[in-house]
Amino acid sequence: MTLPRPCAASAASPWPARLDLLQSLSGLALALFMWLHMGFVSAILISADFAWAVARFFEGYFFLPRPQAWLVTAFVASIALLFALHALLALRRFPADWRQYRIAARHGSRLRHGDTTLWFVQVATGFAMFFLAPVHLYAMFMHPDLIGPYESADRVWTGGFWPLYLALLFAVEVHGSVGLYRLAVKWGWFEGRDARTTRRRLKLAMWGLIAFLLTLGLTTLLAEIRMGIEHAPRAGERYVPTWQRSPTAVEEAR
């Protein structure tokens, strides 16, 4: 049977596939960025001086005549735009109303399939990130110069951001790791002769990645909280690296 012309044209449209590919690419880019971001913020675990150097690097401190905080603002804006694009594309897959959600939930409960459950996990964590991430992005966009050992610790503790960052940590790392797993399955990455074995190995890698990132993230957040508590009486003071302090100031810091 020949389909009516409008239906046939709609069925042959390449746009759903293009949007799907764009969603996958934007999600992959954000997941890889979050790995880098975790590395940047965890620099505090090495030393306060190293964390200061990482923060100043993004302002061009080491290769420009003067550091430029607007470089951080521009970078944050690009990440925010990528996040918004990915969210809009992902909304195509979200249940549009309560009825659709009930149908999807009933379907998932009947199947009892692990990957279907992971899809619901991504929906839940993505929904949480939709509200949590813009707060952090706005703070970084408006105050790019307040990134550093003392500055970040003051924001986490004195500024009361630690509950937000705790919730965001779990939402981001779970969402990103599950998303990478689902991308690998969807596009056939690392596919071997036995699809079930490949999927099992990918799932083990996913859980290992989640455990590693959450452990590193919680350790970093605790370090920020501890520094914030110690620095609370002098909240607002900028961090000065050891090599820029006077000998007297270094001795007092010890």
UniProtKB/TrEMBL annotation:
The reply on keyword Lyase is: no
Sorted alphabetically, the keyword list is: Heme, Iron, Membrane, Metal-binding, Transmembrane, Transmembrane helix
Q: Which GO terms describe its molecular function?
A: metal ion binding
The Swiss-Prot or TrEMBL record lists the needed cofactor(s) as: heme
GO cellular component terms listed in the entry, alphabetical order? membrane
Nuclease among the record's keywords?
Answer: no
- Transmembrane segments annotated in the record for this chain: 28-48, 68-91, 118-141, 161-183, 204-223
Q: Where in the cell is it found?
A: Membrane
Which InterPro entries does the entry mention?
A: Fum_red_B_TM (IPR004224), SQR/QFR_C/D (IPR034804), SuccDH_FuR_B_TM-su (IPR000701)
Q: Which terms under GO biological process does the entry name? A: tricarboxylic acid cycle
Q: Please tell me where heme b binds in this chain.
A: 37, 86, 136, 175
Instruction: Tell me the protein's name.
Output: Fumarate reductase cytochrome b subunit
The record lists the organism as: Thauera aminoaromatica
What is the taxonomic lineage of the source species?
Bacteria, Pseudomonadati, Pseudomonadota, Betaproteobacteria, Rhodocyclales
